[in-house]
Design goal:
Blueprint lengths: L1 H21 L3 H22 L3 H36 L5 H14 L4 E3 L2 E3 L2 H16 L10 H5 L6 H8 L4 H8 L16
Length: 192
């Protein structure tokens, strides 16, 4: 373990040097790139458009985008480390993150036509009314003869009423116990 610990300490020194030489301070790189873009945009405003200034400004924009991407990646990794170390353990860090998420995801202001709603209760009522009107409105249906024109009628209204009537007791007995003996149950319990 001592050898591993010594090697890790040596690696840490090398990585720190590499980080300073290759990346430098990410935040100062972003500030410097932003300053360069603003300086070139100011020159374009003062001196007018020229191909040389436009090319320089385009290059400065690319450098700024790279620096911003590196800074974003830095913050992503830092947040992962913070979450790994003290994230979901009921710590003050966890509660602060929960408060921040609640505050950023809640509505504190809402526009209703020309009015701006700031009161929480008014915002809740407006949202509730909006979705009630959207999803709980009456369905307006109009009769359509589409089904009649697409599906042909094979049964007349008279035949349909006869078929949908409840059969009489005599009709059931007549079918089950056929008068000619053909429908009468045989020795096996089935029709003969």
């Amino acid at each position: 373990m001592y050898i591993l610990s010594t090697k890790l300490k040596g690696l840490k020194i090398i990585l720190k040097t590499w980080n300073k030489e290759v990346f430098g301070n990410i935040h100062s790189r972003v500030k410097e790139a932003l300053f360069q873009v603003e300086r070139l945009q100011q020159r374009i405003t003062n001196e007018g458009h020229s191909d040389n200034l436009m090319i320089q400004e385009d290059q400065a924009q690319k450098v700024l985008l790279l620096a911003l991407a590196a800074e974003e990646e830095f913050w992503k990794e830092k947040s992962r480390v913070n979450w790994q170390v003290s994230g979901d353990r009921n710590t003050s860090y966890f509660h602060n993150i929960a408060k921040i998420r609640y505050a950023t995801k809640s509505m504190s202001m809402l526009r209703q036509g020309e009015n701006t709603l700031l009161d929480r209760q008014k915002i809740e009522n407006h949202v509730l009314d909006y979705f009630t009107m959207l999803y709980a409105s009456d369905n307006v249906t109009q009769p359509s003869s589409l089904i009649d024109s697409v599906i042909p009628k094979l049964v007349s209204e008279e035949d349909n009423s006869m078929l949908s009537k409840i059969p009489l007791e005599e009709e059931i007995k007549g079918v089950v116990f056929d008068m000619n003996g053909e429908g009468a149950p045989g020795p096996d319990g089935f029709g003969g």
